[in-house]
Design goal:
Elements (H helix, E strand, L loop, with lengths): L2 H14 L1 H9 L1 H9 L5 H32 L1
Helix pairs in contact: 1-2, 1-4, 2-3, 3-4
Length: 74
Protein backbone atom coordinates (compact mmCIF):
# COMPACT_ATOMS: atom_id res chain seq x y z
CA UNK A 1 0.00 0.00 0.00
CA UNK A 2 1.42 3.35 -1.08
CA UNK A 3 0.97 5.66 1.92
CA UNK A 4 2.34 8.66 0.01
CA UNK A 5 -0.29 8.17 -2.72
CA UNK A 6 -3.05 7.87 -0.10
CA UNK A 7 -1.91 11.14 1.49
CA UNK A 8 -1.80 12.94 -1.87
CA UNK A 9 -5.28 11.65 -2.79
CA UNK A 10 -6.73 12.71 0.56
CA UNK A 11 -5.24 16.20 0.27
CA UNK A 12 -6.68 16.61 -3.22
CA UNK A 13 -10.09 15.40 -2.07
CA UNK A 14 -10.07 17.74 0.95
CA UNK A 15 -9.19 20.71 -1.24
CA UNK A 16 -11.84 19.88 -3.86
CA UNK A 17 -14.69 18.64 -1.67
CA UNK A 18 -15.71 20.90 1.22
CA UNK A 19 -17.98 18.23 2.73
CA UNK A 20 -15.13 15.74 2.78
CA UNK A 21 -12.87 18.38 4.31
CA UNK A 22 -15.42 19.03 7.06
CA UNK A 23 -15.71 15.31 7.75
CA UNK A 24 -11.93 15.04 7.92
CA UNK A 25 -11.75 17.88 10.44
CA UNK A 26 -14.51 16.48 12.64
CA UNK A 27 -13.55 12.78 12.53
CA UNK A 28 -10.27 12.21 10.70
CA UNK A 29 -9.90 8.53 11.63
CA UNK A 30 -13.31 7.49 10.33
CA UNK A 31 -12.93 9.69 7.24
CA UNK A 32 -9.53 8.26 6.30
CA UNK A 33 -10.67 4.69 6.91
CA UNK A 34 -13.73 5.27 4.74
CA UNK A 35 -11.75 6.89 1.95
CA UNK A 36 -9.03 4.26 1.93
CA UNK A 37 -11.50 1.39 2.13
CA UNK A 38 -9.00 -0.76 3.99
CA UNK A 39 -8.72 -1.33 7.72
CA UNK A 40 -5.24 -0.03 8.50
CA UNK A 41 -3.46 -0.25 11.85
CA UNK A 42 -3.96 2.77 14.11
CA UNK A 43 -0.33 3.85 13.77
CA UNK A 44 -0.66 4.00 9.96
CA UNK A 45 -3.97 5.89 10.15
CA UNK A 46 -2.45 8.41 12.57
CA UNK A 47 0.62 8.77 10.34
CA UNK A 48 -1.62 9.56 7.36
CA UNK A 49 -3.75 12.01 9.36
CA UNK A 50 -0.74 13.91 10.68
CA UNK A 51 0.85 14.10 7.22
CA UNK A 52 -2.38 15.40 5.67
CA UNK A 53 -2.86 17.99 8.42
CA UNK A 54 0.75 19.16 8.09
CA UNK A 55 0.48 19.53 4.31
CA UNK A 56 -2.85 21.37 4.51
CA UNK A 57 -1.48 23.74 7.16
CA UNK A 58 1.60 24.44 5.04
CA UNK A 59 -0.55 25.12 1.98
CA UNK A 60 -2.87 27.40 3.95
CA UNK A 61 0.09 29.31 5.37
CA UNK A 62 1.67 29.67 1.94
CA UNK A 63 -1.61 30.90 0.47
CA UNK A 64 -1.99 33.42 3.28
CA UNK A 65 1.55 34.71 2.77
CA UNK A 66 1.03 34.99 -1.00
CA UNK A 67 -2.20 36.89 -0.46
CA UNK A 68 -0.52 39.25 1.98
CA UNK A 69 2.37 39.87 -0.40
CA UNK A 70 -0.03 40.58 -3.25
CA UNK A 71 -1.88 43.13 -1.09
CA UNK A 72 1.39 44.82 -0.19
CA UNK A 73 2.41 45.01 -3.86
CA UNK A 74 -1.00 46.17 -4.92
Amino acid sequence: MDIKKIIEDLIAKIKNDKDFGSKFKSDPVKTVEGAVGVDLPDDKINEIIEAVKAKINLDDAAGGIKGLLNKLKG
